[in-house]
Design brief:
The complex is a heterotrimer of chains A (about 250), B (about 350) and C (about 290). Chain A is built from 9 helices and 10 strands. With about 250 residues, chain A is of the alpha/beta class. In chain A, helix 6 links the parallel strand 7 and strand 8. Chain A is globular. The chains are: A alpha/beta (about 250), B mainly alpha (about 350), C mainly alpha (about 290). The complex binds adenosine-5'-triphosphate (ATP) and magnesium ion. Magnesium ion (MG) binds next to helix 1 of chain A.
Chain lengths: ~250, ~350, ~290
């Protein structure tokens, strides 16, 4: 009867981060298993983006260790993690502003894996990825000229271009209408069906509740609650954190 | 990934085909043809041989600079590589008596050695701060060479550097030392080679990565571009080429002194030519050199023997104010070409 | 022992002067946030002006200062007009544009004044001489010290204790906040450049009297000003003075032990060290940059 738990994809063990003596993340323990969609919630400044930065190698943890697919990756640079199958989007989009949307995606295809294709060979595939996020009509627009929400979608397409195994999405549903959130949720589920594991930051809970198997609530750099979505959001401490009344 | 097709990738590394496919090859062909053919009509024009030959030479220097600028490294100190190349080559020729064919590449390696130091010490510097550091970095070799009189002849300069040797291609003997026309063709050929290299750099996988680094470094890293290695290699190639120019310069001129080869002028020149011509296009630095240098030498120099180089300052200011993306971008119908 | 004192005197005088040089730079930098690479050339221009007033018109050295004080603010205001036109990305564009300006000015000076090295009042008289110790302070050093310190003190008092100065400082530190507080930021810009021009006006003659002026000499003054500004931060007179002294002492020590011509290496090495240690330069000190 005992079901074997799926293998671990990402594991954070006692990870802490501080800037100039100021702690930003404290003693984080977290596991993402294969086939999971994990949501990361918490009020502004909780440290959600910083956690992504650590996992993706943009910053390196002051303490603790991060293991990704069985390898110790705590101090790996971002490009190495990318080659290992980890991709992320940035909360504030960081497109290559002077390249077209297509070229942005092309770069992901070319460099995402060590033996990536040459530019010409990957154009078609880049177009398909743009279509997947609904940007096929903006193929030749310079990314700097796209609107914010289009740039967010471009971020997703670009991240997918690296053919990730674990995808970190940072607030891609912020400020979207309910229908648009529904679309994003469908996309996320589709990616999940294709075998991609996901971690999703969602400040306003409009996306996470639709798609996540598990939620982790963060406040002031600490995990205050983790577990099944319905339970987490009703947990008094989480509510207090959002209302700003938590001690 | 179900919806995303995974075709086997065609390997396409034929840069010649890609060059023919690019929209600018007619322009490149016209410019090249003109440069190749005009001496047939005016066989006795030593001044023009000299000026256009040097324009080609500075075109090479400008491309060397641009390879670093591709990755966003705006250097204000390329004369450091140039000067080290010149002194490396000149001193080797002076003390060892080796042929320029040997000393020039060795001199270029001295320049590249300094490039390695930049790569190590300046790896965390970006934008303006990188520029400031490079500006200051020129002073170090300059002051050392200036003060190391017993070895480098200090501020007196190194004189009597042998000229370029004669080339022998089969039965044909090309006397680079004696014939300005031969020298012109030599420099033109050099520029074409460098131009091809520049084209390759811009359109290679590595060049794409450099461009991504320039446009957004964090995003590039996250997409799998090895930022440090790519930038370092760009710096290495750039400093090597600038050193090569310096070494060549020493043998072209026959004498060098620190104030000449480590000058602000030589740091500025490749930057001005490149930005004016358009640093986003492989022809930009070349066109900049072919237009500006003759303008300076043939038009201004006779009127203003001292201070005619002010034109480069004026041009770069005008470029930054009015067409910051340079000439080639203005000319080309599409907004961008690389 | 007295050798040390000699270094201290020479370095102190030089360093105070460098603080003066950096002060003008830092005021202008504070308002525009542009690393003005033509700054040294402006000081040279002021120096040439003083030189020709002294040489051709026979003005006494101290008589040249008022003239420079009148002329150079005008030049600085022109510079303001120039820098205001630079488009974004501002930082790198202004760096390149002022680099071009430096090139223009250098060649202009070359055309007008030739490449000769010039010095105002080549002979220096001992102002204070202690024969028993061998310690000498020349009148030039004394002048340099008093003028530089007096100017620095004046600027310090102005910035700290007058309403105008406080508004200026507020503008330099927090532009938007200053604007919200009802400060006319635009006018403060003109003001900063005017003050910067005054400081350049004073620095020029001092420069021409202390060091040789020649068209290519501006880079070094610029490097020194940038080094001290990055070391000290913007508009902080006391740190600027400290930075100036450190650079001055280092240069005096280098000149004493290695010889005068090695001195030019000091500012370059200091700047590179500073940047390598603090790669984000001035931006890093406020901690206001997010990934
Ligand atoms: N580079 C940095 N240096 C110093 N502190 C930083 C840096 N980056 C982030 N912080 C601090 O870390 C804390 C967490 O920031 P983070 O961006 O991770 O929050 P967040 O949970 O993503 O919030 P939001 O919902 O606003 O995106 C904040 O207090 C922030 O000020
Ligand atoms: Mg965030």
């Amino acid at each position: 009867m005992l079901e074997q738990a799926p293998p671990v994809c990402l594991e954070l063990h006692r990870v802490s981060m501080s800037f100039g003596g100021q702690p930003v993340l404290k003693d984080i323990n977290l596991v993402v298993r294969e086939g999971e969609i994990v949501g990361l919630i918490g009020p502004n400044g909780a440290g959600k983006t910083m956690l992504f930065n650590l996992i993706a190698g943009v910053y390196h943890a002051s303490q603790g260790s991060i293991r990704y697919r069985g390898q110790e990756t705590t101090r790996w640079p971002p490009h190495r993690l990318c080659h290992a199958g980890l991709a992320r989007t940035f909360q504030v989009p960081r497109p290559f502003p002077e390249m077209t949307a297509l070229e942005n995606v092309l770069l992901g295809l070319m460099f995402g894996k060590i033996d990536g294709p040459a530019a010409d060979a990957a154009k078609e595939q880049a177009g398909e990825l743009l279509a997947l996020v609904g940007l096929d009509h903006k193929t030749d627009t310079p990314a700097g000229k796209l609107t914010l929400s289009e740039q967010r979608r471009l971020e997703v397409a670009r991240a997918l271009a690296t053919r990730p195994h674990l995808l970190l999405l940072d607030e891609i549903a912020a400020g979207l209408s309910p229908q648009a959130v529904g679309q994003v949720a469908r996309l996320v589920k589709k990616l999940h069906r294709q075998g991609i594991n996901l971690m999703i930051i969602d400040h306003f809970l409009n996306l996470t509740l639709k798609v996540c198997h598990r939620l982790v609530a963060l406040d002031e750099g600490e995990i205050i609650m983790a577990g099944e979505p319905g339970q987490v959001i009703r947990h008094p401490e989480v509510v207090a954190a959002y209302l700003g009344t938590r001690e | 990934m179900g919806t995303i097709s995974r075709k086997p990738y065609r390997k396409q590394n034929n840069f010649f085909c890609r060059f023919l496919a690019s929209e600018t090859w007619p322009l490149a062909a016209v410019v090249g043809g003109l440069l190749l053919a005009w001496p047939l009509c005016f066989p006795k024009a030593d001044l023009y041989y000299q000026v256009l030959g040097m324009a080609c030479f500075y075109g090479v220097l400008a491309m060397a600079w641009n390879i670093l600028a591709l990755a966003g490294g705006i250097s204000l100190g390329h004369s450091a590589f140039f000067g080290l190349g010149a002194y490396g080559s000149g001193l080797l020729a002076h003390y060892q008596g080796w042929s320029p064919a040997v000393t020039i590449p060795l001199g270029a390696m001295v320049g590249a050695g300094y490039g390695v130091l930049w790569g190590i010490f300046f790896q965390r510097l970006r934008g303006v701060y990188f520029g400031l550091a490079t500006l200051a970095a020129v002073e170090i070799p300059r002051v050392i060479i200036d003060n190391w009189g017993s070895f480098t002849y200090g501020s007196l300069g190194l004189v009597g550097i042998p000229g370029l040797p004669d080339l022998r291609l089969g039965a044909v003997e090309i006397s680079l030392g004696a014939s300005l026309r031969a020298l012109y063709y030599f420099l033109l050929a050099l520029m074409c080679l460098a131009g091809a290299l520049h084209f390759w750099v811009m359109h290679s996988r590595w060049g794409w990565g450099l461009r991504a680094i320039r446009e957004n470094e964090a995003a590039a890293a996250m997409l799998g571009v090895n930022v440090r290695r790519s930038f370092f290699l760009a710096l290495l190639l750039s400093s090597f080429l600038a050193g090569l120019c310096g070494g060549l310069y020493a043998h072209l001129l026959g004498l060098i002194e620190p104030a000449l080869v480590f000058s602000l002028h030589l740091s500025a020149l490749p930057l001005v030519l490149s930005i004016f011509g358009g640093r986003f296009h492989f022809l930009g630095p070349l066109l900049g050199a072919l237009l500006l240098y003759p303008l300076d030498q043939l038009v201004l120099q006779p009127y203003l023997p001292m201070g005619h180089a002010a034109i480069y300052g004026v041009v770069i200011i005008a470029t930054i104010f009015f067409w910051p993306r340079g000439l080639t971008t203005c000319l080309s119908k599409r907004r961008r070409s690389v | 022992m007295w050798r040390w004192t000699q270094i201290l005197v020479a370095g102190g005088a030089l360093g105070s002067f460098y603080a003066l040089v950096a002060l003008g730079f830092s005021l202008i930098f504070g308002v525009t946030h542009a690393f003005n690479l033509a700054y040294g050339e402006f000081i040279l221009l002021s120096g040439y002006l003083a030189y020709f007033l002294w040489k051709s018109w026979g003005l006494p050295f101290y008589g040249t200062i008022p003239v420079c004080l009148v002329v150079m603010p005008g030049a600085a205001l022109l510079l303001h007009l120039f820098l205001r036109r630079v488009r974004s990305p501002f930082e790198i564009n202004s760096l390149v544009a002022t680099f071009g300006l430096a090139l223009v000015l250098q060649n202009l000076m070359l055309a007008l004044f030739s490449a000769d090295y010039r010095l105002i009042q080549p002979e220096a008289f001992p102002f204070l001489h202690l024969p028993a110790t061998g310690l000498t302070i020349t009148d030039k050093q004394f002048g340099l010290l008093t003028f530089s310190l007096a100017a620095t003190l004046l600027v310090h008092l102005l910035l700290r204790h007058t309403f105008l100065g406080k508004a200026l400082r507020a503008t330099i530190q927090e532009r938007e906040a200053a604007e919200l507080a009802g400060i006319n930021v635009n006018r403060m810009g003109w003001l900063a450049f005017a003050f910067g021009g005054l400081l350049i006006g004073l620095a020029g003659p001092m420069y021409g009297q202390t060091m040789y002026i020649y068209p290519a000499g501006g880079v070094e003054a610029t490097l020194i000003a940038i080094t001290i500004t990055i070391f000290a931060g913007v508009g902080r007179t006391r740190s600027l003075l400290l930075g100036g002294w450190l650079v001055g002492l280092a240069e005096a020590a280098a000149a004493m032990w290695l010889g005068g011509s090695w001195k030019e290496l000091v500012s370059a090495l200091l700047l590179i060290t500073l940047l390598v240690v603090r790669p984000s330069g001035l931006a890093g000190r406020d901690g206001n940059h997010k990934p």
